[in-house]
From TrEMBL, chain A:
Residues modified as 4-aspartylphosphate: 51
Cited InterPro entries: CheY-like_superfamily (IPR011006), OmpR/PhoB-type_DNA-bd (IPR001867), Sig_transdc_resp-reg_receiver (IPR001789), WalR-like (IPR039420), WH-like_DNA-bd_sf (IPR036388)
GO cellular component: cytosol; protein-DNA complex
UniProt entry keywords in alphabetical sequence: DNA-binding, Phosphoprotein, Transcription, Transcription regulation, Two-component regulatory system
Gene3D superfamilies: 3.40.50.2300, 6.10.250.690, Winged helix-like DNA-binding domain superfamily/Winged helix DNA-binding domain
Protein's name in the database: Response regulator transcription factor
GO MF term (any one): transcription cis-regulatory region binding
Record feature DNA-binding region, as residue ranges: 127-225
Residue ranges of every copy of the OmpR/PhoB-type domain listed in the record: 127-225
PANTHER family on file: REGULATOR OF RPOS, TWO-COMPONENT RESPONSE REGULATOR
Organism, as annotated: Gluconacetobacter liquefaciens
Gene Ontology biological process: regulation of DNA-templated transcription
Domain Response regulatory: 2-117
SMART domains named among the record's database cross-references: REC (SM00448), Trans_reg_C (SM00862)
Automatic annotation (TrEMBL), chain B:
Listed name of the protein: histidine kinase
Keywords: Kinase, Membrane, Phosphoprotein, Transferase, Transmembrane, Transmembrane helix, Two-component regulatory system
Enzymatic class: transferase
Transmembrane spans: 24-49, 175-196
Annotated EC: 2.7.13.3
Length: 226, 514
């Protein structure tokens, strides 16, 4: 993926750029809003990672609003120290697709970057069925089968599985699950997500030979066929 | 007066043509005095005109009646009878105030007590008030002339010397009275002014002392509950809040100094130690990871603190909206049910079909999640944690339902380690952790956040000890009309909430609440 990183702090910029390159992406780092805007409109990126507070007269939101006004639909991930609910809403209203607050764990950022790139590809075709290896879910009848065998899931477990399947092959963090499945925007102190995932595993993985839901250390979970 | 004026510079008024005094107190008292004096002038003028006018009208009526009687005499018996009647009347007039004169066409006197016809009296259709000479004395008289047939003329009048005396007397006494009233008005104004000054002075002095840092000062209260006391009370209340906020800030900065410095120190030590002593990459990596974990803790504490501060500042009321609490609570219950089950804790939800609420959705989610977090964290295996919500039941000393608002209470009870009395009182302080809870993870900010959220919703957070365990109850008022009218028909569209009905009951409601 071709990713534009607009971030004025050199440590954060280099860290993000290095991590994304290691993950196999082509990164264009920029340290101010003016250059960022120039690159964003003149080149074609798959994703823009954008800091909000930038030097050079054009801050992140201005940049975002400008490219959205030109019908540029490149997914934008806002990366900001402004962590208020209001700031987050403001950022998403301006046209941002996701919002990560500083300080952040790189695994979280990477997982969201992957999720955003996937979203761009999937959106045009509404799916009624999702398949990963021998696991299949039907979104209309809300039924789950693995290896031809029917699995009964609670509604919430179904939504959890659906989310994991939609992001199959990607790391999904606990925060993403909490936001995507439960629509909660706070961090519970206890490991609530882990417990729900482990329940899902009991039903989806345990009776079968090969596990599909994998724990990614220090990051989250991933659903994939081995 | 100038000193009091300095506190209230009436900048706008000073440019006007009538330079109003700069002291608000003086302006008030001047206004008061002026109004008093003016109204007394009006009042006394009314009395004066009323009395004098009445006397005048009485004289005129008497003269008219006299004249009518006399003209009847003339019709009955002609000139001699009239002359006789006039003489009779003069004789019977004990007050000696009647004046009669009848003259023939040549002006010769026929009867009466005036020596000659007064030169000024020429017309018979108006009243004359003039000086007449009668029996060697000059008098003031009210006189009316009447034309008789044959060129004869009749003059009827009354001596109004007495009336003039009365008038002077009345004028004098009213003037005196007015002077006294004005004096009273002035002294009243001075009194009002000094009272005003005293009251402003005490407020100004106290606020000034507070502005200079003496936060222990309070407005003196008279205790009669008048407006002054109300103002003083409002100011005192404000001061109490300021003190509480400042204490909070002090407490937080102390807590930050301790609770943030500790993990930062730990992270720093680990990194430095690893840099100096790590023997291989594995060890180095492990130390760095531990340090990152510590820093993540610092971040989450920091974020929780910011959130509490932000909520306490009350800036997040913008997100308030009406919604039904029950689906929200059921969802959170669903989220935590798995955790509870994993720890062999029985999580029971006791929810009515619907609880209309007005507030911030995300915050209520967080508050309830924090309470459940705590309850599950401190519960032993096999215990029961209950999440209950109810609309209406007022508890002594808490917010009461009124015609315009309901009271919603959300309670989380557990059978865990509980808290002793001293700890209960401090439980919602930032960074407070009971001794018995030292070994469990957490920063001691969960309840502070809940407390801030409940306060933002205008409610109170109460903790009750149970045997064993703890009950935490959020009691919040909900405005009745608007939110209910616009309530979205959600999962439970029951028209009337039935607080007593529970979806899943293992014990009777409110058991164990004190």
């Amino acid at each position: 993926m071709h990713i534009l990183v607009v971030e004025d702090d050199p440590t954060v910029r280099n860290f993000v750029a290095k991590g994304l390159r290691e993950a196999g992406h082509l990164v264009e780092p920029v340290d101010n809003g003016k250059d960022g805007l120039f690159l964003a409109v003149s080149e074609n990126f798959d994703l823009i990672i954008l800091d909000r507070m930038l030097p050079g007269g054009i801050d992140g939101l201005r940049l975002l609003e400008t490219i959205r006004a030109q019908n540029n639909t490149t997914p934008v991930l806002l990366l900001s120290a402004l962590a208020d609910v209001d700031d987050r809403v403001q950022g998403l209203k301006a046209g941002g697709d996701d919002y990560v607050t500083k300080p952040f764990a790189f695994s979280e950022l990477l997982a969201r970057v992957e999720a955003l790139s996937r979203r761009g590809r999937n959106e045009n075709a509404p799916q009624t069925r999702l398949n990963v290896a021998d696991l299949e879910i039907d979104l209309l009848s809300r039924s789950v089968r693995r290896n031809g065998q029917r699995i009964d899931l609670q509604p919430r477990e179904f939504r959890l599985l659906e989310y994991l399947m939609r992001h199959a092959g990607q790391v999904v963090t606990r925060t993403m699950l909490l936001e995507g499945v439960w629509d909660y925007h706070f961090d519970p102190q206890t490991n609530v997500i882990d417990v729900h995932v482990s329940r899902l595993r009991q039903k989806v993985d345990k009776p079968f030979d090969s596990p599909l839901i994998h724990t990614i250390r220090n990051a989250g979970y991933m659903l994939r066929a081995d | 007066m100038a000193s009091a004026g300095q506190t209230f510079p009436g900048d706008g008024e000073r440019r006007r043509r009538f330079r109003l005094p700069r002291s608000a107190g003086l302006r008030f008292s001047l206004g008061y005095g002026l109004l008093f004096a003016l109204s007394s002038i009006l009042f006394m003028s009314f009395i004066w005109w009323g009395t004098i006018g009445f006397l005048e009208r009485q004289v005129e009526t008497a003269i008219n009646a006299d004249a009518r009687a006399l003209s009847q005499r003339w019709t009955e018996g002609g000139l001699p009878t009239l002359a006789l009647t006039i003489d009779d009347r003069l004789e019977q007039n004990l007050d000696d105030d009647a004046i009669y004169l009848m003259v023939d066409p040549t002006g010769h006197r026929l009867a009466g007590n005036l020596s000659e016809w007064p030169a000024q009296v020429v017309r018979s259709d108006r009243w004359y008030s003039l000086e007449v000479t009668r029996a060697g004395m000059r008098d003031t008289a009210q006189i009316h002339a009447f034309d008789l047939p044959g060129g004869f003329r009749l003059l009827v009048g009354r001596d109004i010397r007495a009336r003039a005396v009365l008038r002077r007397l009345l004028t004098d006494s009213l003037l005196w009275a007015w002077m006294m009233v004005t004096l009273l008005a002035i002294s009243g104004a001075a009194l009002v002014h000094s009272m005003f000054r005293r009251m402003i002075k005490s407020v100004a002095q106290t606020t000034q002392a507070i502005a200079h840092g003496d936060l222990s000062r309070r407005m003196p209260l008279v205790g009669n509950g008048d407006e002054l006391d109300q103002v003083a009370e409002a100011i005192n209340e404000m001061l109490d809040r300021i003190v509480r906020l400042m204490d909070g800030v002090r407490q937080v900065s102390n807590a930050i100094a301790h609770d943030l410095r500790t993990p930062i120190t730990r992270a720093r030590t680990q990194l430095e130690d690893a840099a100096l002593h790590a023997r291989d990459t594995g060890e180095l990596r492990a130390a760095v990871e531990r340090a990152v974990g510590d820093l993540d803790n610092v971040t989450s504490v920091f974020e929780a603190l910011l959130r509490i501060a932000q909520i306490e500042a009350g800036s997040r009321r913008s997100a308030f909206a009406p919604f039904d609490l029950v689906p929200l609570l059921a969802d959170i219950g669903d989220l935590y049910e798995a955790v509870a089950e994993e720890r062999q804790i029985h999580l029971v939800l006791r929810l009515p079909p619907s609880v209309p609420f007005y507030g911030d959705r995300a915050m209520m989610q967080q508050a309830v999640a924090n309470l459940l977090d705590n309850a599950i964290k401190f519960s032993p295996a096999g215990g029961t944690v209950t999440l209950a919500a109810a609309l209406g039941p007022a508890l002594p000393g808490l917010a009461m339902p009124t015609p315009t608002r309901d009271v919603v209470s959300i309670a989380v009870t557990d059978e865990g380690i509980g808290m002793n009395e001293a700890d209960l009182a401090r439980a919602s302080e930032r960074f407070f952790r009971a001794e018995a809870a030292r070994n469990t993870p957490g920063a001691g900010l969960g309840l502070s956040l809940v407390q801030a959220i409940v306060q933002l919703h205008g409610g109170t957070l109460r903790l009750y000890p149970r045997q064993p365990g703890l009950a935490v109850r959020m009691v919040m008022p909900v405005p009745r009309e608007a939110p209910r009218a616009s309530r979205l028909p959600r999962r439970n569209a029951a028209p009337t909430p039935a607080p007593s009905r529970v979806t899943e009951t293992s014990r009777s409601p409110h058991e164990g609440d004190t």
